[in-house]
Amino acid sequence: MKEIKNSQPAQAKGVEAVDRALRILQCFHKDDGRLGLAEIAARTGFYKSTILRLIVSLEAQGFLRRAPDKSYGLGPELLRLGSIYRQSLRIEEHVRPALRRLLDITGESASFFIEQAGKRICLFREDSLQPVRDHVAEGEILALNQGAAGHVLVDYKQCDAIGVPISTANLPRFSFGERTPDVAAAAVPVFGLEGANTVLLGALTISGPMSRFTPELCEKISAPLLLEGKSLSACFGANLDWQKSEAR
User: Fold this and answer.
1) Is 209 helix (H, G, I), strand (E, B) or coil?
2) Cis bond leading into 172, ω under 30°?
3) Element (H or E) spanning 94, and its range?
4) Residues 6+ away with beta carbon under 8 Å from 74
5) What residue ranges define each of the domains in the chain, with the CATH number in brackets?
6) Termini Cα distance of the chain
7) pTM, full prediction
8) Which residues of 17-27 are buried (b: 16+ CB within 10 A; e: fewer)?
9) Are strands 119-126 and 72-74 parallel, antiparallel or unpaired?
10) Cis peptide before 9 (omega within 30 of 0)
11) 125-135 pLDDT, tens per residue?
């Protein structure tokens, strides 16, 4: 087997040994448990001798653990670093820029809702600059069973998404005149990680007057809204495979 080489330009390669060590860690997938040397070699394209040399350092630093059967699993140092990363996340620092990007693209107000005690709360909001817009304030409490964001919060609340594809067949979720007769909205879920569990964090929403929510605007909204939902979910640790499938 010919060993796979890094094809990046020399100035962008960094330290090759570090890149290869990280590639070994990245070859582990969900539900893998432990991997044997042959499987690691197949997934990375590295010689077994190369892998064994790198594993010595990875194991010594706690990034890998060797089992009695000579297979390898991820080590506790990754859990420690993951915990530090999750604690360092400030949700507003990531959600607020996403809302601003959506506002810039669509021209309509963008919000982030969470569910609490059977209601939905507007946690963050970026208002449209257009003179006619819907009015929701940060901290405002709304009904959970109305509007696109409410439907997303209800439908995905119980989603334990580890290893389960998230359906995008019915996303974004749209609503027209549900909460207020003249207001339309579109929403997608945002997930995060709590321990080993994937949980629903909230709903990313675009809203505005129903008169402006033409089929053209709805089509324009869909791709960036779904992209921001996926990106935020990945940022918060929920690296899900959002597959297009039948509506759940």
Assistant:
1) strand
2) yes
3) helix 91-106
4) 25, 28, 63, 64, 65
5) 10-86 (1.10.10.10), 89-235 (3.30.450.40)
6) 43
7) 0.66
8) eeebbebbeeb
9) unpaired
10) no
11) 999 988 888 88
